[in-house]
Amino acid sequence: MGESHKLIAWEVGASRAASGVHPDESLRAASVWFQAVVTCLMERMPGDPESVRLLTLVVLGLERSITARIRESAASYSSFLLNKVHEAQIEERRRIARELHDRIGHGLSVAHRQLELYDLHRTGKPATATAKVETAHQAIQETMLNLRAVTSELHPHEPLNSLEKALVYYLETVDMDHVDIRLRVSGDETWAAPAVRDESFLILREATRNALSHGLPSKVLIRVDFAPHELRASVDDDGRGFDQTTGGGSRPRSDGVGLLSMRERAAIIGGTTTITSRPGHGTRVDLYVPFGRIT
Questions:
Q1: Distance of alpha carbon 289 from alpha carbon 129, whole angstroms
Q2: Tens of pLDDT, residues 231-259
Q3: By CB atoms within 10 Å of each CB, which of 31, 72, 106, 133 scores lowest?
C-alpha cells in the first residue's frame, strides 16, 4: 500500500476514534463490501480456467488491500486513544498541581507567616502574638481538611453501592467536633443511576468541604431526597456566608475552583447546582438532577 493510501487509512482511523466508532465496525463494513465485490465478479466471470485464475488473483489482491487498510486504521485508532489518555494524564497532573498549590500551599504559607509574626510580637505584644498563633492553628486545620480532600480524590474510585454510606464514611473522616453535622437521606437510591450517585457524592462532598473550610459554621445539614424521576440534595450551613454580587468577595480562590467543579460535575449528569449565600447568614448549595439525562 502506497504512502498516500496509508495516510488516508490513518486519517480514517483517527476520525473514527474521535467519533467513537470502534474498529469492529470498519471490519464489518469491509467484510460486507468484500463479499459484495466477490459475488459480483463471480456472477460476471466466465468459467474457463484462465478467468478463474484471474479472479483468484483479484480476490487475493483485494483481500490484502483491505487487510492493510484495516490494519492501518486500527493502529491509528489505538494511537488516537493513547494520545487522549496521555493528554488526560497531563491534565490530571496539572489539576493535582493546582489543587496542591491552591489548597495546601496557600494554607501552609498563611500558617508560616502567622508564626513569623508570632516571633515578632511575642515579647512586646503578647496578646497580638497569641492571636497570630490562633490564626496559624486555623490555617493548619484548614490545610489538613484540604489535604484529606485531595488525597481522597486520588484514591481509585469504584462505583458507589450507596451514596448514604459514602457520605457517612466521609463525615467520619472529617473530625470536626465543634460543628454539628447532620445527614438526612430519603427515598430509594436505586432510582438513581450509578453515575448519578457517584457524581452527586463528589458534589456534596465538595460543598461540605467548602462549608467546613471557609464558612466557619456551627451547624451543617446535608439532605438527599431520591424520587423515581429525580434527585434533590442540599448542603446548608449557618456560617459566615459571602457576598454573591462580588463573586465571592474574600473567599479563597480554591473555593471558587470548588464551586466551578460542582457545576461541571452536575452538568455531566444532566443536573444543576444553585448556590445561595449572604454575609452573616450562611450558605446553601442545592443540587437537582432529573433522571435520564446523563451526557
A1: 49
A2: 999 999 999 998 887 654 444 444 555 67
A3: 31
